[in-house]
From TrEMBL:
Keyword hit for Transmembrane: yes
GO biological process, one term: cytochrome complex assembly
This protein's record includes keyword Transmembrane helix: yes
Domain Cytochrome c assembly protein: 65-274
GO molecular function: heme binding
InterPro entries documented for this protein: Cyt_c_assembly, YpjD/HemX
Annotated transmembrane regions: 6-26, 38-60, 66-85, 92-114, 126-150, 187-213, 225-243, 250-273
Official protein name in the record: ABC-type uncharacterized transport system permease subunit
Provenance organism: Paralcaligenes ureilyticus
Length: 280
């Protein structure tokens, strides 16, 4: 068993324990999910374990090893770092109720499906920089998409009739423990603005790498097409936000569509090749 699998498994266990510690009080009738200082330190420890697992799995001597699960793991790991930094200045512990189960699942997938392929031209500095930028954009937009899903559920919860306390389930209490929608919307668009900027850098750096390797800035392959579709979607969303004040359900739909395109650009296609078609 490789060190990468071991550390991904340890990270998944740490994330799962933290998730249980937050969800358990809600099942007993508590109204709030609160991580506290100890919880933040434990979360940072889990993130460090996760990072070591990625380093052991991806950064091989003189090469880079990537697969659909490792790419998704690296993206959500970067997203968790961003969330942890945000949590130092904003009270957004409630978002961990959805982030922790998601990152637990992704860490398990990376441990179960460590297969991948060695990235060609891995010694190219531009390529390494492009991969780092692209994964950072992926991480930002992944967290934004998870938050959009949470906001969608919270919006539906707010439009339901008020339930008696005795009749409310722990899901309802979990949604009530989330930050207000306005706070979440502010955080969502901050993530999207930063993610769009980093995604733009990824498109530019990818074009530079492609010109150096193939002579074409935008080859017509699935990665390029879906990445550009995602870039156009988020660009359209931000333009609509500026020009027409888009928010609420419209913004959430655009966010999820943009994330779906980005997911298909690498992880989705690699899943089909590596798992369904079993091609390296």
């Amino acid at each position: 068993m490789s060190a990468g699998i071991v550390f991904h498994s340890l990270a998944a266990l740490a994330y799962a324990v933290l998730a249980v510690s937050l969800w358990r009080p809600l099942t007993r009738g508590d109204a709030q999910a609160h991580a506290g200082k100890v919880g933040r330190i434990c979360l940072l420890s889990a993130i460090i374990l996760h990072g070591i697992g990625l380093q052991q799995s991806i950064l091989l001597p003189n090469s880079l090893h990537l697969g659909w699960a490792l790419g998704l793991s690296a993206a959500i790991w970067l997203g968790m770092i961003i969330f942890w930094l945000e949590s130092l200045v904003l009270r957004i512990d409630g978002l961990l109720l959805i982030l922790l189960p998601a990152v637990t699942l992704v860490a398990i997938l990376a441990a179960v499906f460590p297969e991948g392929h060695n990235v060609p031209h891995a010694n190219n500095d531009w390529l390494r920089a492009h991969l780092l930028i692209a994964l950072t954009a992926y991480g930002l937009i992944t967290v934004a998409a998870l938050q959009a899903m949470l906001m969608t559920a919270l919006d539906r919860q707010l439009h339901r009739p008020v339930e008696q306390e005795a009749n409310r389930n722990f899901i309802s209490r979990a949604l009530d423990s989330m930050p207000p929608l306005l706070v979440q919307e502010h955080l969502l668009f901050r993530l999207i603005w930063i993610g769009f900027f980093v995604l733009t850098l990824a498109v530019i750096s990818g074009a530079v790498v492609s010109v150096g390797l193939t002579g074409k800035p935008f080859p017509l392959d699935h990665k390029t097409v879906f990445t550009l579709l995602s870039w156009l979607t988020f660009g359209g969303l931000l333009l609509g936000r500026y020009a027409r004040g888009w928010r609420g359900r419209v913004a959430l739909r655009w966010t999820l569509v943009g994330f779906a395109f980005l997911l298909l650009a690498y992880t989705g296609s690699r899943f089909v090749l590596d798992v369904i078609l079993q091609r390296g």
